[in-house]
Design a protein that fits this description.
Length: about 230
């Protein structure tokens, strides 16, 4: 093959390497509809699928406006950002991965969110919820969709209850790869056996009421409320 006149080898036309270090997910409703938020591709980090997210926010249609929301295992933050897009007053994001926490701040900046509309805290939810750094001490809507294999929703729920961060009006979204009813009964029994007297004055006997439930592929999702007698 003849070399070009400058003596250099001709450039080979190769495809640009795909960036496998990050992904993105689209907000599907509200004022930020079609806007993109980003996430790192880390083990266990998987944004809630569009179809399931649409179902969830249809469930929350009458309750999301003006709500104080907790995205307890934020990941991409799409649930918390979607809530803000649809009229929530405030979203608290808890994320353990430092790189993803940075992306959450970038997403908030790109959406031009007012600083008073959100809080991003780096750490594990079960630890953060026992600390005093939360701006809001009672949540109207809580999203709990941790990495499925770790069953973190149980210690997260326990922390929310024992720290009085939720009550019987709070809507709790749980997402897992298996049915949760048996584990919820066990968790309620554990809480009822361990609750101290100050908590028992407000929640005497704890249970969980399932308000809505669906299954998408292998993912089971439900909307719950605490019940007490």
């Amino acid at each position: 093959m003849t070399k070009p006149s400058n003596g250099r080898e001709p450039k080979k036309h190769t495809k640009a390497k795909k960036n496998t270090a990050a992904g993105d997910v689209r907000i599907i409703g509200g004022q930020f509809k079609r806007r993109i938020v980003h996430f790192v591709e880390a083990e266990g980090l998987r944004p809630t699928p569009d179809r399931l997210r649409e179902t969830l926010f249809n469930w929350l249609l009458a309750d999301i406006h003006g709500a104080y929301v907790l995205d307890s295992c934020a990941g991409s933050g799409v649930l918390g950002f979607e809530a803000l897009s649809r009229g929530a007053a405030h979203s608290t994001f808890i994320e353990v991965n430092p790189a993803q926490s940075h992306l959450l701040r970038q997403s908030a900046d790109q959406l031009r969110l007012d600083a008073t509309a959100y809080q991003i805290i780096q750490g594990t939810a079960e630890q953060v919820l026992t600390q005093s750094q939360l701006v809001h001490r009672r949540f109207d809507v809580v999203f709990i969709d941790p990495p499925y294999a770790q069953d973190l929703w149980q210690p997260i729920l326990m922390a929310l209850i024992t720290q009085s961060l939720i009550n019987t009006d709070t809507l709790i979204y749980l997402e897992a790869d298996k049915a949760l009813e048996d584990q919820l009964i066990q968790l309620a029994n554990t809480l009822n056996e361990s609750m101290t007297a100050p908590h028992q004055t407000t929640l005497k006997t704890i249970g969980f009421d399932c308000l809505k439930q669906t299954k998408v592929g292998q993912v089971v999702a439900g909307l719950y409320r605490l019940s007490s007698s």
